């Protein structure tokens, strides 16, 4: 794929973030809906979800792909906590879980105010150990990505799990379908995608919030819109640029919300994460495949 086809330059600042000789690599294909990539630098591998096939896969450089977990209980989004443990959102169990070093699964949240969650989708962990996750209804709308069920929650919320008490609290309740989320590197802001436009005539945007004392969100505001498809998963680089999934690839936005450019991907992108030993390799889950491409910036996520 030539550079002219691979990249769409909207702002000259984008040129400093991309490597002219880099190529989009398809590392694996054969998924039904690839999601939730998470990089393990200590194990030198990437783990991601194949939701409809109810499995999680592992990619190792020069080692190919193997099954990490099957059945997976329809796991969608994944991340790691500050101790390096895997945190996952299960559509099937309608819960957020933690995988312990011995492989045991610990349930962190499966209900709110006595009612079952919808289908936890994406998750991030703050430096204080609190876990923040989105809870749209995708996993209970049909049997394709979970188990068809009626929602018990009246709204689709963004939640916080307190690290000490384990108490689950709703942080935002006015999203149509909250999806991807990520903290800025200083954790002063939390950005959240709304993918409700897949089913409703509503904006396809990402909103920003100020984080108050690590426990509350305030000052909701529009950050950017996706002009092709919907915003799903996204991540920040060390300069504060936001790299988002979209129907035509990966869209990169400057901290001021300007669309800098796109990395064109042949399939609809669901999510992405930075990885590799220098966190300068962008791993992309897109419908049936796992892709990667090197950039000239580095991811800001931890650990």
TrEMBL record:
Chain residues that bind substrate: 121, 145
SUPFAM superfamilies named in the record: Calcium-dependent phosphotriesterase (SSF63829)
GO molecular function, one term: metal ion binding
Alphabetical list of Gene3D superfamilies matching this protein: TolB, C-terminal domain
Active site, renumbered: 232
Protein origin, superkingdom: Bacteria
Required cofactor(s): Zn(2+)
Annotated keywords: Hydrolase, Metal-binding, Zinc
Note on how the cofactor is bound: Binds 1 divalent metal cation per subunit.
All residue ranges annotated as the SMP-30/Gluconolactonase/LRE-like region domain in the record: 33-287
UniProt: a divalent metal cation binding residues: 35, 179, 232
Alphabetized InterPro entries for the sequence: 6-blade_b-propeller_TolB-like, SGL, SMP-30, SMP-30/CGR1_Lactonase
Protein name (database record): Gluconolactonase
Organism in which the protein naturally occurs: Rhizobium mongolense USDA 1844
Lineage: Bacteria, Pseudomonadati, Pseudomonadota, Alphaproteobacteria, Hyphomicrobiales
């Amino acid at each position: 794929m030539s550079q002219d086809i691979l990249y769409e330059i909207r702002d000259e600042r984008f040129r400093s973030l991309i490597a002219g000789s880099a190529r989009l690599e398809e590392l694996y294909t054969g998924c039904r809906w690839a999601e939730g990539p998470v990089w393990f630098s200590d194990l030198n591998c990437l783990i991601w979800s194949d939701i409809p096939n109810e499995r999680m896969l592992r990619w190792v450089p020069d080692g190919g792909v193997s099954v990490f977990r099957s059945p997976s209980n329809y796991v969608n989004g994944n991340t790691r906590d500050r101790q390096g443990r895997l945190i996952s959102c299960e559509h099937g169990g309608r819960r957020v879980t933690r995988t312990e070093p011995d492989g045991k699964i610990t349930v962190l949240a499966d209900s709110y105010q006595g009612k079952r969650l919808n289908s936890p989708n994406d998750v991030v962990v703050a430096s204080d150990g609190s876990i923040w996750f989105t809870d749209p209804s995708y996993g209970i709308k049909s049997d394709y990505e979970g188990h068809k069920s009626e929602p018990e929650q009246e709204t689709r919320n963004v939640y916080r799990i307190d690290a000490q008490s384990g108490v689950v609290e709703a942080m935002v309740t006015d999203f149509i379908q909250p999806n991807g989320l990520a903290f800025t590197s200083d954790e002063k802001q939390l950005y959240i995608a709304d993918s409700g436009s897949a089913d409703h005539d509503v904006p396809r945007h990402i909103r920003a919030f100020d984080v108050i004392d690590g426990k509350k969100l305030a000052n909701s505001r529009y950050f950017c819109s996706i002009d092709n498809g919907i915003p799903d998963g996204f991540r920040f680089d060390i300069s504060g640029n936001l790299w988002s999934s979209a129907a035509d690839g990966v869209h990169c936005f400057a901290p001021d919300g300007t669309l800098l450019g796109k990395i064109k991907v042949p399939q609809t992108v669901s999510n992405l994460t930075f990885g590799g030993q220098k966190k300068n390799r962008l791993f992309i889950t897109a419908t049936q495949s796992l892709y990667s491409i090197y950039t000239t910036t580095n991811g800001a996520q931890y650990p």
